Amino acid sequence: MDQKVCVRKRPLFKKESEKGDVDVIRDDNNQSLTVLEPKTKVDLTKFTEEHNFFFDEVLSDNTANKEVYKRCGSPLVRYVFEKQGKASCFAYGQTGSGKTHTMMGNPEQPGLYFLAADEIFTLKKEKGYSDLTVWVSFFEIYGGKLYDLLNDRRKLVARADAKQVVNIVGLQETEVKSVAHLMDALNVGHEARSTAATGANLDSSRSHAVLQVGMYSKRSLHDLFKNLTQIQFKRMNKSVGKLSFIDLAGSERASDVNDNDRQTRIEGAEINKSLLALKECIRALDQGSKHVPFRGSTLTSVLKDSFIGNCRTVMIANVSPGTSACEHTMNTLRYANRVKQLKSADRGKDAYALKVSYFPRACGPSLLSWFAGCIHASSGCSPTRRRS
Ligand SMILES: Nc1ncnc2c1ncn2[C@@H]1O[C@H](COP(=O)(O)OP(=O)(O)OP(=O)(O)O)[C@@H](O)[C@H]1O
């Protein structure tokens, strides 16, 4: 499995600075950033602790969605076309850090969904791909249960067949013939997600949203089967590749397990479980383990086929720059890393600054393991082992 980890910093908002928040993230270059963590000594003197991090890509606060797509999304789309593989893009981070902005965007600045759709239909027009059909499905995982966002939030069930391939029974897949068509479907899904958020007292941060775009090649025999329904027709076709976009639940929700409200605790536990399972699967895959605990959560069960075989993954860890979000930002960035502190000789250059460097192991071998650690750290839980 091929993987890449990127960090995207969002800008500090006016209302945040009015409340006294300051930007504590300094992006040093396009592969490293420094968190300037404000600290207070026991004698109440203030000082700043500097933490350096290194990633595949660091996307600064003035990076537009188009640039994010160019660096993180476009290689996935091209991979699906050129290698006929499966590609997944995860958006991770605390509430308000910019996951939905990255994925969905807005009319002025379309997100990865739109930009990927645009590239898919541009590539499809190119010679050799004209016979491809494009199908889209969009579902949500909330409290471990699946809801079809393109079919009135119908409840769905994931079942493994005899070959251990997990199918989502009843999931509506719609054939889309243009970017506008795909975006219409997406807007319907996004609307269903936000309506539910207000109606049922949950918000988008408490659910994972999975958008899947499947590419199928028409078989020459298909004209003989004109009476088939759309779904039957799709099944007669050969799957060429699949692209998944996963807008994950807010990572800080995983620590809601200590909340007094029962519902919040249950939600927090479920998010914790799924982020932990995702971490365990990524780690197991990265280490080439024979057993990958896909069954650890609904999220990993339904994404199983996107993780095995010919596949590529990009993680976009979103961070908020303000002082008030510093702890969550550090959780996202710090414990995740395969930490390597600089030699003590590097400390003390500044009496009030401690320099700590975090190198993901993949600056050696494994960025995805780093991200797995990231999820682990933010979910605020201790390592667990599952019996295989
Ligand atoms: N890079 C950015 N540039 C400009 N505005 C941004 C950026 N990232 C996020 N925002 C804005 O910040 C706000 C919160 O972002 P967003 O809704 O994407 O967060 P989120 O991580 O998806 O939160 P949640 O988990 O609660 O859904 C939105 O108003 C969004 O437009």
UniProtKB/TrEMBL annotation:
The keyword Nucleotide-binding applies. It holds the Pfam family Kinesin. ATP binds at residues 93-100. The keyword Zinc does not apply. GO terms for cellular component: chloroplast; microtubule. It is found in: Cytoplasm, Cytoskeleton; Plastid, Chloroplast. GO terms for molecular function: ATP binding; microtubule binding; microtubule motor activity. Keywords: ATP-binding, Cytoplasm, Cytoskeleton, Microtubule, Motor protein, Nucleotide-binding. It comes from the Eukaryota. Residues 2-342 form the Kinesin motor domain. One of its GO terms (biological process) is microtubule depolymerization. Belongs to the TRAFAC class myosin-kinesin ATPase superfamily. Kinesin family. KIN-13 subfamily. This is Kinesin-like protein. It comes from Guillardia theta (strain CCMP2712).
